[in-house]
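Quick question: what would this complex look like in 3D?
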Amino acid sequence: MTKYESIANEMRRRIKEGYYPIDQPIPDELSLAEEFGSSRMTMRKALDLLVSEGLLFRKRGHGTFIIQMYKNQSLNVISDESLGLSNLVKGKPVSSKIIQFTIEFPSEEVAGHLAIGRQEPVYHIIRLRMVDHEPYVMEETYMPSNLIPGITEDILHASIYNYIQQDLDLKIGGAHRTIMADKSNELDQTYLECKKEDPILQVVQVGFLNNGVPFEYSFSRHRYDKFVFTSVSVKK
Amino acid sequence: MTKYESIANEMRRRIKEGYYPIDQPIPDELSLAEEFGSSRMTMRKALDLLVSEGLLFRKRGHGTFIIQMYKNQSLNVISDESLGLSNLVKGKPVSSKIIQFTIEFPSEEVAGHLAIGRQEPVYHIIRLRMVDHEPYVMEETYMPSNLIPGITEDILHASIYNYIQQDLDLKIGGAHRTIMADKSNELDQTYLECKKEDPILQVVQVGFLNNGVPFEYSFSRHRYDKFVFTSVSVKK
DNA sequence: GAGTGGTCTAGACCACCCC
DNA sequence: GGGTGGTCTAGACCACTCC
């Protein structure tokens, strides 16, 4: 735990508990830095965190203010921070049904997104992910088998992400995502138990390791009545 | 233009032009700082920008690497940065058809999201937004009339965002967004000219001013075949 | 051990806002 | 003018990775 993180935690706690009046600026950066025994730069870095979380907003020449948040809904939330279903629905049992597990040469599209050649084999995996024994997501995933070797059905029943990070000791860097609505297809209707007229929330993702190499090109198709995607943006 | 922004611009140009080999780390921060005649902290701030854009990734004790990007699609892209349709489809003519424009007392839900009381009147606006004379988005918007006074049909035909920023001289701070898929309803089918079985990509947004006060609670319903939402996240 | 990014300091000047 | 956030400096020490 770094200094600026612990300062940010304390400030987050204060803001959420109503320690600071909501209609006034919080104390200026120099005063806060003195109170926490830090330099102003470190104090700023702590406040930067809270600004990026959408909790605070700065007004140059005026002060730093608390953003009046609105309440969240009760649906499952895919935030732009989370990676992997297992981390998303903590505490609930996650299981997987393997629909397809093959290895093949990639199409031009898949090879392009994974930045590999057409001759480099990829896993092609289709899984139904279940939470609390209810169908939640259909995932179609392509991964280069040279980069992520040793995938087995056992791993697919558990968590690919845990295997990559714990067993292969690779570090995940982040992801590009595209979110869209789509009509449900026959696979969706069969496995997600949704009706023919039900739409689907699809997340297309290219995950990359911390050295920038793409390791995953995936399509996650969510039941429209169980998932939303959230995002907070703050202008600079 | 600040120093770190101009350094970031130059580095972005270099990376995109292939100036640095893609399979090696770029030069270390101290060398780059010397080359650009800046302190290391300023150089870091420039690189921070490129990291947050998903262009670079740092590996502690090892170096800073270029992320191998994948190409974008040809659909309209709602990024987590953009605000307002007018800014989204630059160069193309945007027009609006006003379906409803009333003032009313808010429901509990609307009042809650706008952080106002039930007795504070709100505009209730439904518009069809067209680009190149083709229907693109159905927008339902609630705004407190005390906060954003003087809305007229003329403004609704143009851009509410421009009115807020230029005429009222208010500054927009950011937005919370929730993205979901939904079935199309009769309004969608009539005005977006979509079929009964076509899904909708809905973005629910609470926009807030730079003092943190919510000024807008809106539902934007997009044709599923014309819009996607993108997001880049990088682990720290 | 050498080299890298991660954090932190104690100042400084500037840009902007309100009085 | 006084107070605020925005930027910038020239160092320092630490944590991690590779050899």
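Answer marked as accepted. The mean pLDDT of chain A is 84.
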